[in-house]
Specification:
Blueprint: H1 7-24, E1 32-38, E2 41-48, H2 55-63, H3 72-83, E3 87-93, E4 97-105
Antiparallel strand pairs: 1-2, 2-4, 3-4
Length: 106
Amino acid sequence: PNLMADAGQLQRAFTNIILRVAEGLPEGGKLEISATAQNGVVEVEFRVPGLVLPPESLTATASSTLAGDTDLGTIVSKRLIEGNGGTLEVRCLPDEGTVFTARLPL
């Protein structure tokens, strides 16, 4: 399927996510990236088993404002994805790690 989005902006957004993950990745850790397309939506998932981000990182991403520290790259990613009609969700699951999910319309 064809994705109607700015390729440069998505490349920057995804690179920012990867760099954010790399900062906190434990030695020997891994980043799993997958993409699926269904029901008119492309979903790109960045899953990091074992990495749990601090709560302020999630708050900053959710509110699109800086929470004192940190996560400018993730906030920029969120804004770039939203500018292309999509969403960025970040979840930290204690037993599973951190998952960034970008959803973009086809």
